[in-house]
């Protein structure tokens, strides 16, 4: 036990000096324009006077539009709207409540906000009952035709 603590401090100091010298050498290479290893890795330095491109993450809480659900599948109808802006607003409201949903365009002037792709009607009914307990009203089961 005493032997290991005797050698711990000198080994620690040697490692500390080694890594600090290594970092300063890399910094010196960068200052001299030797950024070749970064270019090889696909990381390029920016040219002077050129503004960096700002990479934006995709916007959050965007409504998702899917195609028609397949025949024999079921979904829960959360709302039917004539205006797509109203359907998008409802979809975003549900997403804020952490309820996954999507918008389906039934016809040219009919937009449905739906939840789920259920294989059986009983699965859709169970989820509908759960959502009704959470306080949602006027829910319907939508069957694909």
Describe this structure in words.
By secondary structure, this protein is α+β, with helices and mostly antiparallel strands. The chain has two domains: 2-40; 74-143, Sporulation related repeat (Alpha-Beta Plaits), CATH 3.30.70. It contains four helices and four strands, in the order H-H-E-H-E-E-H-E. A four-stranded antiparallel sheet has the order 2-3-1-4. A hairpin with a 2-residue loop joins strand 2 (102-107) and strand 3. It starts with a helix and ends with a strand. Residues 34-44 have low confidence and may be disordered.
Helix content: 40-55%
In CATH terms, what is the architecture of the largest domain? 2-Layer Sandwich
Order of helices and strands: HHEHEEHE
Structural class: alpha+beta
CATH C-level of the largest domain: Alpha Beta
Mean pLDDT equals 75
Tally of strands? 4
How many helical elements?
4
What is the total domain count? 2
Gyration radius, in Å: 30 Å
Largest sheet: 4 strands, antiparallel
CATH topology of the largest domain: Alpha-Beta Plaits
The coarse silhouette is elongated
Per CATH, the superfamily of the largest domain is: Sporulation related repeat
- The amount of beta strand, in percent, is 15-25%
Strand order of the main beta sheet, please? 2-3-1-4
Q: What is the rounded distance between the termini?
A: 77 Å
Spans of 5+ residues with little confidence (pLDDT < 50)?
A: 34-44
What's the gist of this structure?
The chain has 145 residues and is of the alpha+beta class.
């Amino acid at each position: 036990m005493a032997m290991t603590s005797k050698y711990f401090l000198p080994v620690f100091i040697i490692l500390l000096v080694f890594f600090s010298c290594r970092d300063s050498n890399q910094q010196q290479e960068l200052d001299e324009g030797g950024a070749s290893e970064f270019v090889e890795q696909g990381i390029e330095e920016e040219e002077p006077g050129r503004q960096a491109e700002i990479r934006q993450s995709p916007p959050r809480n965007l409504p998702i539009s899917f195609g028609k659900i397949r025949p024999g599948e079921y979904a829960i109808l959360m709302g039917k709207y004539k205006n797509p802006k109203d359907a998008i607003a409802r979809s975003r409201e549900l997403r804020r409540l952490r309820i996954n949903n999507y918008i389906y365009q039934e016809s040219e002037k009919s937009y449905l906000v739906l939840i789920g792709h259920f294989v059986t009607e009983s699965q859709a009914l169970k989820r509908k009952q759960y959502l009704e307990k959470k306080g949602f009203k006027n829910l319907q089961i939508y069957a694909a035709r």
